[in-house]
Here is the input.
Amino acid sequence: MSLDVAPEPIRKGASQLAFGIVEHLANGGMTGFSGATLVVEFQAAGAASYTQVGTVKTIFGGSYVYVVTAKVDGTWRVRYAGDATNAPASATDYVDVR
Here is the structure.
């Protein structure tokens, strides 16, 4: 699972794209995992926990894109809860807001 939030650094109030790819083991190799529901979360710098801001589904090839708004420095996380055949996974990216 990957996550990149861009562009950065970013000005407060500007929009950013959170994007990446989710893969899983299928047919003997790693392949894009389409149809997976991911939870999008944010943890402000210095905060103790993440806050859920939305969900996004992966499309063909396992890719996803979610538009976020830069408010304060912090860490974005996408999280997949897992299912009967796929393990939970997550990825993070820290964003510098100016």
In short: The beta strands are 4-6, 15-21, 23-26, 29-32, 37-44, 51-57, 63-69, 74-80, 89-95. The mean pLDDT is 96. The two ends are 28 Å apart (CA to CA).
